[in-house]
Model the fold of this input.
Amino acid sequence: MTNCLFCRIVAGELPSKKVHEDEQTFAFEDIRPQAPTHVLVVPKKHLRGLKEAGPEDVELIGRCHLVAAQIARQRGIENGYRTVLNVGPGAGQSVFHLHVHLLGGRRLDWPPG
Ligand code: DGP
Done:
């Protein structure tokens, strides 16, 4: 989608600090980090969010989480990290291209705010 921020980052039209890329996913540093590690993992395919996803997206969404787990392993934060999808404006979703937040490197309390 030409007017989607994360599609433009994936396409290299906008700059980002890339962390990982494979055929189907792209990961980059969040511009407003909420933890020492705050990486966004996105599918290259434009998907508006979790509630718009369908059965055909099962593998892709799982893959985004596994990429997050791989990054967490590489960064040595496996003692405790969180993968989060904010779904809808009421939960804080502000960019409407599905993204998994990987947060770690500090204590993460529960429940989140
Ligand atoms: P959410 O609020 O769940 O939709 O998360 C969107 C995240 O995207 C938020 O943590 C800030 C981040 N973000 C917004 N614009 C940019 C950008 O241009 N570059 C990068 N790297 N991150 C961005």
The beta strands are 18-21, 25-29, 37-43, 81-84, 100-104.
